[in-house]
Amino acid sequence: MTDRISNTFNSTVGGAKQTIGETIGNNNLAASGAQQKAQADAAQKAADAKTHAEGVGHKVQGEVQQNVGSLTGNTSMEARGHANEVRGDLERKV
After folding, report:
1. What is the pLDDT of residues 32-43, one digit of tens each?
2. Sign of CA dihedral 6, 14, 20, 26
3. What is the pLDDT of residues 48-89, one digit of tens each?
4. pTM passes above 0.90
5. How many Å apart are CA 7 and CA 79, to the nearest integer?
6. What's the rounded Cα separation, in Å, for the pair 62 and 58?
7. What is the Cα–Cα distance from 39 to 32, expressed in whole angstroms?
8. Do 68 and 74 contact (CB within 8 A), yes or no?
9. Distance in angstroms (rounded) separating the CA atoms of residues 37 and 86
């Protein structure tokens, strides 16, 4: 979560620097702000993709655990599977 906060902060600050630079005619400040915003936005997209992929993995793991637990009568494994499946669903929605 701290990466999300950091990326959001850097994107906002970069956008503000870009706007201020453009408003006062300072091309260096505007370019610096645009670069900071672009880097933060790219980092956030990469983090989102990673979280989504992890979510898919947890969902699949959970489904397998549920099925194996159900077939073997292992209610503990079945419950862990359900928890992993829910975790995966949540990670994919972030």
Report:
1. 999 999 999 999
2. positive
3. 888 888 888 999 999 999 999 999 999 999 999 999 899 998
4. no
5. 35
6. 6
7. 11
8. yes
9. 33
- Hey, what are 22's tokens? 């453009």
Query: Cα Rg for the chain, rounded, in angstroms?
Result: 21
What gap in Å lies between CA 93 and CA 33, rounded to an integer? 30
Q: Would you state the structure tokens that stand for residue 40, as one six-digit string?
A: 């933060």
Spatial CA neighbour of 59 closest among 87, 30, 28: 87
Q: DSSP per residue over 12-53, as a string?
A: HHHHHHHHHHHHHT-HHHHHHHHHHHHHHHHHHHHHHHHHHH
